[in-house]
Design a protein that fits this description.
The structure is a single chain. The protein is an alpha/beta fold. The protein has a single domain, classed as Aldolase class I (TIM Barrel), CATH 3.20.20. It contains 11 helices and 12 strands. It has helices at about 50-65, 85-90, 110-120, 130-140, 145-155, 180-185, 215-225, 290-295, 300-310, 315-320, 330-335; strands at about 15-20, 70-75, 100-105, 120-125, 165-170, 190-195, 225-230, 240-245, 250-255, 265-270, 275, 285. Strands 7-8-9-6-5-4-3-2-1-10-11-12 form a 12-stranded mixed β-sheet. Strand 1 (about 15-20), helix 1 (about 50-65) and strand 2 (about 70-75) form a beta-alpha-beta unit. The chain is globular and about 60 Å long.
């Protein structure tokens, strides 16, 4: 592997998040609201998606640039047929030490064993409430919370663990469920991560008043189950870690709004059609599919990727409210959050 590449703010590239599909079977109000992603919404045709071979080739190049972590996302990644084949291909790439997947859990019960057998290391499940009525309202397709819980238990039985549970907290919608979520998953087998509601994309109607600050979340949990901050696992970890004082595991908080972590961000995001985005809040991507299908060599792709990352200046969360462009941001459902 050549010397680690750095962006204009001396941040390395270590983490590549790969969207394998722009489709999802949920219509979560903060991500893919029905008012935009309705019955007539045109998703990408299959031929425009990167093939598994193209994804694996890009991943090998990025591993050579210092990427050690790959996370598969969507849309809902388990909607991509034969995803286990891609997992197997990525698991074989030298240098990739952490291969994970983020899912809404709807198909996880039937997929957990095969994903584990293919070489997937970790699973993160998005779950915004344990209350069935609240959960159905947030996913907006009447999907029952019990089936997501079945998927989580299946993943644990398959050997994944600790399993991360992501909860996006929105004021007036599910903030009352924070303590119940922490209580339900207070175990070394799980890590709940409470995420401040963010202004990703252009369609979720984000308002600052709807954000429940991480400090308030920590205060509510600590009042019932005492916790204390603990050290990050590595530089650039986005979630602040807190451990239960009784040894019952840990939780995390992702405070992109109230405590931006741009200064240590080492992530890039590859969309399902091959556009690389250097920030979750980016307004445009860099086209790698054109290179892949235009006869470029791995050296050409390496040089292009190096140039893209070297020119990276992104720090949206630090500048939130002071944006200098009116261009629309990429939707979270397109690049997997």
């Amino acid at each position: 592997m050549k010397e680690q590449i750095l962006d204009s703010r001396s941040r390395p590239l270590r983490d590549l998040r790969i969207s394998v599909t722009d489709r999802c079977n949920f219509r979560c109000t903060y991500c893919m609201p029905k008012s935009v992603f309705g019955r007539d919404f045109q998703f990408l045709p299959h031929e425009e998606l990167l093939t598994f071979e193209e994804i694996a080739r890009l991943s090998r190049v990025f591993a050579g640039l210092g990427v050690t972590k790959i996370r598969l996302t969507g849309g809902e990644p388990l909607l991509r047929r034969d995803l286990e084949k891609l997992v197997e291909m990525l698991a074989a790439i030298p240098g990739i030490r952490d291969l994970s997947l983020t899912t809404n859990g709807s198909l996880l019960a039937s997929k957990a064993l095969s994903l584990r057998a293919a070489g997937l290391h970790r699973v993160t499940v998005s779950l915004d409430s344990l209350d069935d009525a609240t959960f159905r309202a947030m996913n907006d397709v009447e999907f029952p919370v019990a089936r997501v819980l079945e998927g989580i238990e299946a993943a644990l039985a398959a050997g994944f663990g600790p399993i991360k549970i992501n909860m996006v907290v929105k004021r007036g919608v599910n903030e009352q469920d924070v303590v119940a979520m922490a209580r339900r998953f207070r175990s070394p087998n799980y890590i709940v991560r409470f995420i401040e509601y963010m202004d990703v994309g252009n369609t979720n109607g984000w308002r600052l008043v709807d954000v429940v600050p991480a400090a308030r979340i920590i205060e509510a949990i600590n009042a019932e189950m005492p916790i204390a901050p603990t050290q990050p696992n590595y530089r650039g970890e986005v979630a602040g870690r807190y451990r239960y004082l009784d040894g019952g595991g840990e939780i995390g908080v992702i405070a992109s709004v109230t405590q931006p972590f741009c200064h240590d961000c080492a992530r890039a995001r590859l969309s399902s059609e091959g556009l690389l985005y250097t920030c979750l809040f980016a307004t445009h991507g860099h086209d790698f599919r054109e290179l892949l299908r235009g006869g470029a060599t791995d050296r050409d792709i390496d040089a292009f990727a190096t140039g893209v990352w070297a020119g990276r200046e992104d720090r949206y969360s630090e500048l939130r409210g002071k944006a200098t462009t009116e261009e629309p941001k990429v939707e979270m459902s397109h690049i997997g959050g």
